[in-house]
Amino acid sequence: MTTANLYKAYRQTQITTASQANLILMMYEGAMRFTRQALDSLDAQDPAGMVRNIQKARDIVNELSLSLDISQGGEAAARLESLYQFTLSQLTLANIKTDRAPLEAVLRVLTPLTSAWQTVAEGQTEEAPLTPAKF
After folding, report:
1. pLDDT averaged over the chain?
2. What is the pLDDT of residue 21?
3. 99 CB contacts (<8 Å, ≥6 apart)?
């Protein structure tokens, strides 16, 4: 097996065995990584790379939004939904205008959310699984 295949197998195992909070954390980390890569592509004057990375970040944030259950999550879920919609609009704006300011705004939203989910993931026990709707 090549190193790339070993990493892919390791990553797949990591995903399939992760707790729900860790999966959500991985999604936040991925959205942040792709947003940073979009900024790097913008700086390198690589519009195709910027568009590709913005779309990956959008896909992740959209999935986070779709996973919310407002009826069970109450006000916290509604606020998260507002943040996700803002983030999606900023990613779209960055894509249309080829502008770094909206991408930086996305990172300012995702950074504290990622930190919060890191805390949740570290404190999660097997007996008390956490769902996004109950956050």
Report:
1. 86
2. 86
3. 93
